[in-house]
Amino acid sequence: MGNVPRYTILAVDDERSNLLVLNRILSLEYTLLTAKSGQEALSRAENDAPDLILLDIIMPDMSGFDVLRELKAREETREIPVIIVTGLGGGGEDEERGFFLGAVDYISKPFNNAIVRARVKTHIQMIHQIRMSERLGLFDPLTDIANRRNFDERIAMEWRRAKREREPLSFLMMDVDKFKNYNDTYGHPQGDALLKTIARIFSAAARRPSDLAVRLGGEEFGVLLPKTDRSAALNIAERIRAEVERTKVPTADGGETTSATISIGCVTMVPTERESMQQFIVTADERLYYAKRSGRNRVYAGDGAADAAERGETNSAADGEASGPTTAGADAVGADAAEQKNGQGGAP
Ligand code: GH3
Ligand code: MG
Ligand code: MG
Questions:
Q1: How many domains does the chain have?
Q2: 166: region left, alpha or beta (phi > 0 left; psi from -120 to 50 alpha)
Q3: Mean pLDDT (whole number) for 151-179
């Protein structure tokens, strides 16, 4: 991560010669995209998500000011910093108007190579700093996956979205089994190595862009799975469980330890007004501890018969049906625990 990533700049100018000059000045250090009209600029800004925009003011179809106003009005492009490019003879008014509309800086034409390079560099560095500090606040430094705060934001968003779109949302919560023993046997640094290995397995299991693997704290991890129904979530949980069990953890001296095992609680809901996000998380947590009490190294997802919402179904025809095994979901902790065979979740 030490490397500074290659940033992308969108240069907007109706004159090809100006774009060529900017290309010559900037393309060594940055990826340069170009647009020759206001409309093209707006669509490129939205589709290609540049990190910085250099925007000419005087253009035939839409003025740079109109483009700037439009960029700031759209959620997808609002945050992209814009440097306006002003021609001769503006008397400072263009710059002033640009700042008023939300530009971060200006460059004047004809271009002075050193000034263009310096201004762009300043803003790219600022963007880089902001990204890094955002990253520090949202990612766990040990494992480099999302942290709790990141997860809290995402689950709130995905919960609302699932409710709106009537799609199932699944969540797997897991805890390392007997981690104290592992730490005691191999030492705390090796315990950290195990956590990193587990985080990697979780990240790999979170395959879709909207999936989120998170370190919830200590030795607890989770995976949030939007648009994923109960049986798909169970499959993923079981795959993770098996993968952790199978994976050896490298040691500092070039050897390896057998990995620990994990227990997973699994919950799926199509949220409606009746369900609360709090209850969703608590259910995953309760099922995790149910899996622990039933012998560890297993997945528990309730029996899935209690509520259609829990099966990730959008109709609630089965609501209230009491058929099926006596093992209820979240709150029945007891004798039937043994029924949850190793690695099996859900209804027999
Ligand atoms: P159980 O199967 O019931 O979960 O047993 P356990 O020993 O894993 O449970 P417990 O919660 O009692 O112990 C958790 C241990 O995890 C205690 C703590 O020292 C260790 N731990 C928490 N965070 C870290 C960490 O960042 N690094 C390391 N190496 N150990 C950690
Ligand atoms: Mg534990
Ligand atoms: Mg614990």
A1: 2
A2: left
A3: 96
Beta-bridge partner residues of 224? 171, 212
Residues 301 and 226 in one domain: yes
User: What separation in Å is there between the alpha carbon of 219 and the centre of ligand 1?
Assistant: 6
Phi/psi-derived region of residue 45, left when phi > 0, alpha when psi is between -120 and 50, beta in every other case:
alpha
> What is the tens place of the pLDDT at every residue in 66-93?
999 999 999 999 999 999 998 866 678 8
Q: Per residue in 292-345, pLDDT tens? A: 999 999 999 998 665 445 545 544 333 333 232 333 343 333 333 333 434 444
Do residues 171 and 276 share a domain? yes
**Residue where a domain terminates, one of 136, 161, 176:** 136
Q: How many CB atoms lie under 10 A from the CB of residue 68?
A: 24
Task: Report residues whose beta carbon is within 6 angstroms of any ligand 1 atom.
Answer: 175-180, 183, 188, 191-192, 195, 218-219, 292, 296
Give φ, ψ of 13 to 5 degrees. Answer: -160, 140
Spell out a b/e string for 154-182, using b for 16 or more CB atoms within 10 Å of the CB, else e: bbeebbeebbeeebbbbbbbbbbbebeeb
**Top mutation candidate among 175, 180, 296 for ligand 1, by most atoms within 8 Å of CB:** 180
Q: Which domain holds residue 193?
A: 148-341
CATH of the domain at 131: 3.40.50.2300
In a shared domain, residues 201 and 263:
yes
Q: What is the mean pLDDT of the chain?
A: 86
> Is 201 found in the same domain as 289?
yes
